[in-house]
Amino acid sequence: MKFKIACLQMDIAFGNPNKNFQKAEKLIAEAMKANPDIIVLPELWTTGYDLTRLDTIADKNTVTTIEFFKMAAKKYQVHFVGGSVANQVDNSVRNTLLIIDKNGQLVHSYSKLHLFKLMDEHLYLEAGVEKGLFELENRTFGAVICYDIRFPEWIRAHTANGAEALFVVAEWPAARLSHWRALLIARAIENQCFVIACNRSGHDPNNEFAGHSMIIDPWGEVIAEAGDKEEIMSAVIELDRVKDIRKQIPIFEDRRPDLY
Description:
alpha/beta; 7-stranded mixed sheet; 28% helix
């Protein structure tokens, strides 16, 4: 089965959800000219890392964001890996990724498990507890958020349970671009899966972001890679290649979970 993926590498307006919703709407319309099956957005795309004001700009229970994606999904008949948004739940805020199918149904939500202390996430966000496994078109995928890719055992928890492709949404800084590329390629090779990684571009008051959204095949070959500016990057993935590659080098059969 083939899926055409479009990654929206946005330059996010710091702390301005209204402006970011307007930009996302325009980018989605532009992306649809190429008829993708799945559109992917970056991490915290509605607010950026304006963490100190999340109590006023976060989306309560992601209601507004879900409605936005439902309307777009029905309008364009496209699936969304809807990046992640600041999600206010009672008295806490989570960094929550949303999956909306082409019929406008919420398929899954995943809140970032590993909080990144270098950007003070632990001071303003509550860590999630659920996995990122989900299904679209009867195929199994995994989705994680940014810092999560530094934890290979967390990624394996998804591929060992059937994920054929991994979606990564991020706000990865330019200062560690080499880590971004190396980690994503390694995750693809060691899990024999496609990796679709959508990063943001641009700046906020404290950071410059790397861009370089990537789509990588199960051999670790880069199918498509964006530059460092705002752009729409797309490529086609053929999920049946995953089964073929896993037969050639059967790492999932040769694992020793009795010992590790």
